[in-house]
Amino acid sequence: MLTRLRNRLAAQHLLRRSRHPYTVDTRTGPLLVLPGVLDPVATKVGAWLGERMAAEVRAGEAWADMGCGTGVVGVAMAQRGASVTCLDIDADCVRNARANAALRCVQLDAVASDLFAAGPGQLYGVVYNAPFWPGDGDGRPFGRAMYAGGAFEAIHRYRAEADARGVTRVLLALSEAGPRHAEARGAFGTHDVRAREHVGGEWLVLLEARRA
Questions:
Q1: pTM over 0.85
Q2: Segment 11-50, tens digit of pLDDT
Q3: Can you give the residue range of the structural domain that contains 103?
Q4: 8 A C-beta contact, residue 138 and residue 165
Q5: Per-residue b/e over 38-53, b at no fewer than 16 CB within 10 Å?
Q6: Which of 45, 115, 119, 193 gives the lowest tally of CB atoms within 10 Å of its CB?
Q7: Judging by DSSP bridges, how do beta strands 83-88 and 125-129 pair with one another?
Q8: What is the DSSP string of 147-206?
């Protein structure tokens, strides 16, 4: 409970105070954080997921970075030679992903999209740094980034849309500090655990959809 409260207050503080762009360091390289976009180092999951996905992709594979935020995950995959599309409902995040692609000198597409609504056609894989708190938020950046709906509808929709598109690899990252974590995992459907690691006082997990 204390970890969840601390993370929530820290994220809200970052969004209120980040009036100007600033740069953070990650293991995959420097990263620009624009105003209104969550810092993936301070909030842990994004920076960790970028490292994990750099080891998951191969050159030439077509991947989408869903809910891309700063683009930390998509840029890391593009650095490994994957063909990447960054998708986010927030236009500020789309701009941030493009800026970080330029900063790291990699090529990727970044598109404003509600999940797959404006996404690319054929994909080999997709990964989602998903909102993992139950509830609807308030429509502002923090709410969109952290709240998945009362019954984790965002995660349900993500899995259903990815399956409908025939995506071969469908991955989801969560923090176990989220309330009702087991329900968030259940919303993703049948899956295997690709990675689970204790980072900064909380457990982070990367799940992959299990195919019949």
A1: yes
A2: 555 555 557 899 999 999 999 999 989 999 998 999 999 9
A3: 2-209
A4: no
A5: bbbbbbbbbbbbbbbb
A6: 193
A7: unpaired
A8: B-BTT-HHHHHHHHHHHHTT-SEEEEEEETTSTTHHHHHHHT-SEEEEEEEEETTEEEEE
CA 93 to chain CA centroid, nearest Å = 11
**Residue 130 half-sphere exposure toward CB, CA atoms < 13 A:** 34
pLDDT digits (tens, 9 = 90+) for 51-92: 999 999 999 999 999 999 999 999 999 999 999 999 999 999
Task: Determine phi and psi for 142, rounding to 5 degrees.
Answer: -60, -45
Total count of domains within the chain: 1
Q: Residue 35: which of 12, 18, 11 has the closest Cα?
A: 18
Under a CB-based contact definition with an 8 Å cutoff, are residues 23 and 32 in contact?
yes
Q: What is the CATH number of the domain that holds 25?
A: 3.40.50.150
User: Where do the H-state alpha helices sit in the chain?
Assistant: 2-17, 45-56, 72-79, 91-104, 141-146, 153-164, 181-187
Residues 209/189, Cβ–Cβ less than 8 Å: yes
Given the structure tokens 């063909």, which residue do they identify?
83
